[in-house]
Amino acid sequence: MFRIVPEVRTLIAVRIVAVTTLLVVVLIVQFTTDQFLPINYLYLVAALTYALTIVYLAVAALVVDRAVNLAVQVAGDLLVETLLVYFTGGLDSPFSFLYLVSIITASMLLYRRGGLLTASACVILYAGLGDLLYYGVIPMPEQGFFSMTPFSSFRLYLNMATNFAGFYATALLTSYVSEKLRVTSLELDANRRSLAQLKVLNENVIASIPSGLITVAPSGVISFANPSACEILACPAVEIVGRPLADLELFPEEDWERLRDAMLTRKAARGETEHYMRGGDRVTIGYAVTPLNTLDGQPAGISIIFQDLTDVKRLEEQLRLKDRMAAVGELSAGIAHEIRNPLAAIAGSVQVLKKSERLAPQEQRLMSIILKESDRLNKSIQDFLQFVRPSERRAIEFDVVASLSETLDLLSNSLELGAEHTLERALDPPKYMLVGDPDQIRQVFWNIARNAIQAMPRGGRLRVTTAATYDAIRIEFADNGRGMSDHEQRALFQPFRTNFPTGTGLGMAISFRIVQEHGGRIEVDSEPEGGTAIALTLPRVPTMRS
After folding, report:
1. Looking at the structure, do residues 401 and 270 belong to the same domain, yes or no?
2. Which of 22, 161, 273, 390 is most buried, judging by how many CB atoms fall within 10 Å of its CB?
3. pTM, entire model
């Protein structure tokens, strides 16, 4: 099925409606009056219009060019208009204004060239009809409502000159307006396309940025949230947009007061908050609040750009811990050696004195205490030296699940595990080959499991689980003991920080260093009185760090 150009289709439809309306009115008048009206020519004009419409449709089906179709229709209209002028009085016809309609139509649709050509065609047809009637070449129609009055040559040419001037003036003025409208329309289309492209680009930029972005109206209601904001807040957009900002509980009350002040004073504000809870986990969020203004400078609300800083804060804490551990190691290694040398001399001297037979039992007991405490101090120094100056690692391939199972077997048969404790294990897969130092990894398992047992002095359950991918294995030690506060978690891997009365505060620090040197990581999840879960992630083939 062929497609007709919209302007061509509209022009055909308007013409059909106009002619049909005129024909209906004529028929009504004809059948409601007793006097016969000489208007048969109107039927001829209507029939000719319908016939030309068929021609227009045929041309539209054969020719796609818009200008050709419009020119054919304007030419047909001029023919019908000339015929109507002839039947209604010639130069005195009241329908000569229809020429102006065709000129305006051509000027609007075909612009200046089409308007001037149509005006010239009107001049030729109108002048030719007037001359033919004036000189009697063609007779006036026998039946007509209108009769042509005799014209002098002066009046004839004055009438023609007036109409010609009107034709060309109408063509020039209408085409000027049409050209301006066309230029304006093209500019509007270009601006509309540019605006659409800019809108798409803006939406893509906002959707692709990793930071969360929400906009808040002056009333405090959220009006927009980008995908990153929904991901960080763990809420779909339908649950964010339209809600008051305070309902999100993104900021504590004191920070929310500062944000309200920013909305009033139109000043930017920055900050961090650990107030937001996402799925039961506390999230650290860094944010920047910026005022929004309309084009005329009126307040339009605020925009909040924020990021999830939880992992960044964790990495910063690990870096600070490494720096502290390095500083402590460099400073204390020498001190430990200086303490160990006189300690050995003291212990040796006491052992010699203890063999003397002249010592009283009380003095013998004091000597034993000195030796015992010297041994304990020497063991602490050995642990410390192992921490600051670890032994050389030997990287081999070994079964980490088997090492874990052996460590748990050792723990279950040791005095560390009491009758009130339960040890559960779910080791899957049963075998996983890992490249690393098996002795150091086994020491990590022992330290973490022993800490978990000590965190349950009144008994409890320790559950050890594993989960593996091709690249790494995850080992989790979960107890239901006393748990830890946020402050205790931050200090867990710091040297000489212990939560137990008999601990040295080096076991977890050594474990942290070993895991880091094997390219892995340790994650801690704990709540006071809610138990603790410590998860190790060890890569299959790590880059051994020095």
Report:
1. no
2. 273
3. 0.46
